[in-house]
Amino acid sequence: MAGRAQPVNPWPGISAAALVAALILGTLAAVALRAEATRGFGPADWSALRFTLSQAALSAGLSVALAIPVARALARRRFTGRRLLIALLGAPFILPVIVAILGLLQVFGRAGWVSDLLGLIGLPPVQIYGLHGVVLAHVFFNLPLATRLILQGWQEVPSERFRLAAQLRCEGFALFHLIEAPMLKRVVPGALAVIFAICLTSFAVALTLGGGPRATTIELAIYQAFTYDFDLGRAALLSGLQLVLTATAAFVALRLSRGDGFGSGLDRAIRRWDGTGRAARLGDGCWIVLAGAFLMLPLASVMISGLGGLMHLPIQVFQAALVSIVVAAASTALLLALALPMATAIATGRYGIVEITGILGLAASPLVIGTGLFILIRPMVDPTALALPVTATVNAVMALPFALRILVPAARQSVGRYGRLALSLDMGERAFFTRILLPRMRPQIGFAAGLTAALSMGDLGVIALFADAEIATLPLQLYRLMGAYQMQAAAGAALLLLILSMGAFWMFDRGGRWHAEA
Amino acid sequence: MLKLEDIIIATGDFTLAADLTVAPGSSVAVIGPSGAGKSTLLEAIAGFRDLRRGHILWQGQDLTDLPPGKRPVAMLFQDGNLFPHLTATQNVGLGLRPNGRLTPSEHEQVQSALSRVGLADKGARKPAELSGGQQSRVALARVLVQQRACLLLDEPFAALGPALKAEMLDLVAELVSETGTTLLMVSHEPEDARRIAAQALLVADGVAHAPMATAELLDNPPPALRDYLG
After folding, report:
1. A415 touches chain B (CB under 8 A)
2. DSSP of B15-35, one letter per residue?
3. pLDDT value at B226 more than 60
4. pLDDT tens readout for residues A65-124
5. Is A420's CB within 8 Å of B77's CB?
6. Which of A249, A287, B115, B171 to pair with A112, CA 20 to 30 A apart?
7. Helix (H, G, I), strand (E, B) or coil at B183
8. Nearest CA in chain A to B65
9. pLDDT score, position A263
10. Given an 8 Å threshold on Cβ–Cβ distance, is A440 in contact with B48?
11. Is residue A52, in this structure, part of any structural domain at all?
């Protein structure tokens, strides 16, 4: 429609975008100015770069390679619990990294279940620290994402093609060649690129399972330059390197990927006629059971071990939990204050610059922004005094790209469908926003708020840069307990964090959908 | 009098020209082949499309640069005429106060409009709890309280069955004659046009022609209309 006006005031959204751009670009500029480029990269820096790239490539490759058979099995099998399993595949996105790592240690660690089993048959325990562990954890987080992305590809194959193939008695490799291979060719590069980009900025995983000269990511090296050497010049230089990497990877990933990974309708069942043989059924069953066990066992382990610890938590854990709740609430409020006006402005279809600002956060990593903020704040105040506001802000900015992906389509739909009616009723911009847009978008607002609250609750990133011994969020407190080998308290704290993150997500998401009309 | 003074509406390659007047209080069916620009013409009058040239006037007042909400025009679209999260009463209330709360006397106005369309006891329901015909009635009740001089219908009843659609058109005819509203309605069915519109205007080949008596136009159709009617 060659519309004239729309009942939408774009200026709040443009202002919010300007704030976000100023924050991201400002911190990047601070990093660039502070970086001591003349000093060049030392051998440790090069090795961090090599490790970052190789672990990301390995993690992406393994995640996608394993996801293909799992997604195929999920695409063509019907069984009770299938919907639940597919829904659970979305959970790692909001799962606190440090909780998952504790679970992985309990299952795969030196004293874990798997090592015990190996010991029974006289084999040495698993080595979880170093490259193995980092890749293992990344596969744990990204196998579900890859499975969802690839499953989406499978679901988008029109069912008529499977019907036609069945009629032609096209089975096995021929069917793969005819239908599935072309689909994978379309979907796999995007999935690889997205996971590669995610693993580049890995911090919490590298902090806990990596470390040492041979298993340090750039993100971790930035943190070490800060905390061990307090070498701001080197931290800034590494941040610059990290920025180039993540920006390039994010650009490639956005180019190659089309799906959003939150795609709904993944539990829709498509009737298939192939893969009815015993071997195919057995194979699919194995993949589903193995993938399910790989994802559930660590979580189950945290829950079981945490139950005992929950009763004997030190008081600091509860203090940290309170801090985390406040930070998550502030972060969620800030996110909504930024994302809602931005989504509204983007929905008019006229402010591409707002949309670009929205994805800027993907190019910067939390520690890079943290470094920049530290450099900017330090001349004025003691950065540790601002640890919590900075954490809440960075969490909100990091959640912004995801929130916009959820909110913008809903805002577009409401403006497109009801904009003309509102205009012909002479409804003002403010009334349209509060009386039409907000109520219409409530389910999406709830979902976005839930994601942000959970992400912020479980985040172990910037807070590690800024915090001193006095103050901690729950994830940081959990990390400290693990570092001090207080494993029982750590297990209890992990369960508490898991409950808080999932509870925050559930509360917002459920609240958004409560009594919402179609 | 609604006057389209030598206007041209253009979007991309498509242009539609019109130079015509519609007498106040008359009911005019807008007929013509699909894609000829019937909806475009109504959207231009309602203010949703810019004119490349010319003026639109109502009783001598130039509407051309007024935003849609400031024109003496109410329009019902093919769909999306009600907000699904608001009750029937709230939807009708928007016709009086799109930006605020209703006063008690305005509440009475809303209630009497709902009664007029036969929904006195359905005010608390949301659109999903109403039938298609009842939803159309709510939209008409809102048009009533809006009290605009012109009503434009872009086939809002297209999704209803034949009997229900006829019922709605009769209700529209009653309402516009009670209030003296000028009606322009897009119509695909010659029978609808004959039913409630004494006049009809033909949109074809990039031109919206002046209105003429409906029976005359349909009984002696020009070539473009003859092809369409078959």
Report:
1. no
2. EEEEEEEE-TT-EEEEE-STT
3. yes
4. 999 999 999 988 888 888 888 888 888 888 999 999 999 999 998 878 888 888 888 888
5. yes
6. A287
7. strand
8. A4
9. 47
10. no
11. no
The answer to whether position A139 is within a domain reads yes
Chain A residues near residue B139 by CB distance under 8 angstroms: none
- Residues of B within 8 A of A436 (CB-CB) are 83
If you ran DSSP here, which 8-state letter would residue B128 be given?
G
Cβ pairs A/B, distance under 8 A:
72
The residue type at B33: P
Within a domain: A1: no
The C-alpha atoms of residue B92 and residue B23 are separated, in whole angstroms, by 28
Q: What is the CATH number of the domain that holds B217?
A: 3.40.50.300
Instruction: Write the CB contacts of A351 (distance below 8 Å, at least 6 apart in sequence).
Output: A10, A13, A14, A17, A345
Nearest CA in chain B to A427: B98
Cβ-based contacts of B48 with chain A (< 8 Å): 1, 3-4, 420, 423
Output the pLDDT for position A267: 58
Structural domain count, chain B: 1
* Measured distance CA(A237)–CA(A33) in Å, rounded: 9
Among the partner residues A417, A426, A516, nearest to B69 by beta-carbon distance = A426
- pLDDT tens string A38-71: 777 888 889 999 999 999 999 999 999 999 999 9
Domain limits for position A25: 11-35+61-513
CB distance B67–A1 less than 8 Å? no
Q: How far is B77 from chain A (nearest CA, A)?
A: 8
Domain count, chain A: 1
pLDDT band for position A356 (50/70/90)?
A: confident
End-to-end Cα, chain B, rounded Å:
33
